[in-house]
Structure formats: C-alpha cells, structure tokens
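--- STAGE predict ---
source: upstream dedup step, 1 unique chain passed
mode: sequence only
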Amino acid sequence: MGFGDVISISTFLFTPIFLIVGIVFLFLKNGKAKKMFRISGIVFSVAIVSFILTMELGFWLTTLILVFLSLLALLFISLVYLFTKNGKAKKMFKVSGIFFAVTIVSFLLGLKFDDRNVTQTTQTVLSSSQGEDASQDTKKKVEAKAIAKEKAEKAEKKAIAKEKAEEAEKKAIAKEKAEEAEKKAIAREKAEEAEKKAIAREKAEEAEKKEANNQTIFDIDWETYKKNWYNSMNSVDGNLSVITDKEEKQSAFTIRHDGQLRKALFVSVNTDEITNKIVYAVVIGTTNEDNVDVFTASANLIKLTDPTLPVEIRKQIVFELGLSNGIIINEKSLSYSYNGITYNAEYEHELGSLATLTVSAEKE
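--- STAGE serialize ---
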C-alpha cells in the first residue's frame, strides 16, 4: 500500500467523524458547529484528491468523481439546512441540481474520450517502438513521461480547484459579513425609531398635561376656594359660609375634594394634580318651596366662578338655569355658556315637590 493510499483511507475515515461531531454541535447550538463542518469539508477534499491521484484516471473520469462526491456533500448540507430551517435549503438544492447535471455530462464525456485517449496513447507508443526498434527501456521511459505529464496535469487541476475553493470561501465570508452589517443596520434603525416614538409620546404627555393646566377655571387651590367662599357667602347667609371637608379622591389627572355646607347641601371641586388649580366646581343639594339654600349656594358658585361678571350677566345665568327666586321653573337639565365657561343645572324630582339640584361649572 502506497503513501497516497494511506492518506486517502485515513481522510475518508476521519471525514464522517468530524461530520458527526459537527451535527451534534449543531443540535446543541454550539458555536463550533460551523468550524467542525469546515474541517470535515477540508478533510473530505484531501480524501478526494488523494484518491484521484492514486487511481490515475483520465480528465473526464476524474471530473466525474469530483463532481459526484461534491454532489453527495451538497445534498447532505441541503438536508441539514432543511431540517434546521436555515432558509438556505432551497438554494443548496438548486446548486445540487447543477452538480448532478455536470455529473451526467462528465460521465458521458468520460466514456467517449478517456478510453479513446488511452487507446491512442498505447498505439502511438507501440508504433514508435516498432518503427525505431526501441528497447524495453525506451518504452518504460515513454510511459514514465506520459505518467509524469498526467501527474503534472492533475497537479495543475488540483491547484486550480484549490484556488476556486479559496475564492468561494472568501465570497462566503464576505456575504456573511454583509448580512451581519445589514442586520446591525436594521437593529439600529429600529432602535432609533423606538427612541423617536418615546420622545413623541413624552411630548404628547407633556402637551396633554399643559392642556389640562389650561383648563383651570379658578387660578386658586381648594383651601383658597374655601376662604373665598366664606368671604363671599358670610354677608349673605352665615349658615352657608363654612365648607367642611368630607372626602378626597384621586382620578386620572385630577383630585376631587368634597365639602359640606348643610345636612343635604354639598360642594365639590376637581383640582389639577400638578398645579392644584381648580378645573371643575359643583353644588349638589335637595330643595323644595320652603328651602332655598341650594339656590343661594348655586348663585354663589356662579359668582366665584368668574368674579369679573357684571351683576346683570350673573342674573341672566341664574335665570337661564331655572334658579330665579328660588323656584324650580323647569323639570329638565339646562345649560348656559358664557365667556368660555359652561354652567349646567340638572333637576331630579322625587316624591312630592322635593327635588335634587346639581349646578356645575367647567371650562369649554
């Protein structure tokens, strides 16, 4: 057994070992799987080359063996890509089809030309020997030259194949780097887009808070409102001048403060959670023909809502809301807007002439 045979057998034995290790690493998602596949490919290439050199075949038969073994390798890689859902299986199957076609062509051309070349070479040697009456040593020299020439051609083909393999590997590496760069660019673009959305959302929240701040009716807080109520109401009806705190509740962007004037008469306001300024005010109470406390408190609410209103305008608002002279003249909800503020009155009649009156004020 020659040295070339030893190399050929050894590399053929080592190829499946590296291939199996690569498959195990692939299923274990180990980062060395690609490296093991590359090593198995190199060992397999050495096995093919050493096998061809020891066989001393013609050009087309040599090409047939190379292409056929490459076809088997490509089919295996295609199946691995298909199983792992790599996305490149379809492309590898197309390449395998091309190699299969080349295999068929190489087989046909090998049958036609390689046997003919061998026959022609043998006839030329024999005729030359007979014509020149050469000795056996001369024949051996001719054969040695033919073998040397064939080996030189094989070495040249081997060098070309190696050069093409290196070029293909460089292209694969360049493609991989381009894909990584594209992925990084996409990730960076998504990050920038997310940052822009976050900034836009932050600006929208700020605008929403500013808009909420601009909706304040009174430029005062709850405590100042109670003091102003006392100062405004004390000269009219001292019994309705003091607001007693009852409850405080937090909602979306506001805080609701509830207060009580009498047993069945309540005052409530909503303040902005940031500025603490009042954005909504309401008076709720029960009334009948003998009790006008709720009408008096409602009129005071209108007065405090916009202290700059002339007396005639305040009377007009009181009349439009059905609060005139402490008599309910409407049995439905009424609304009236003036100077950017909407006033609402809702009447809910119960048994007899008893009714619940709700009067509110809020900015449009």
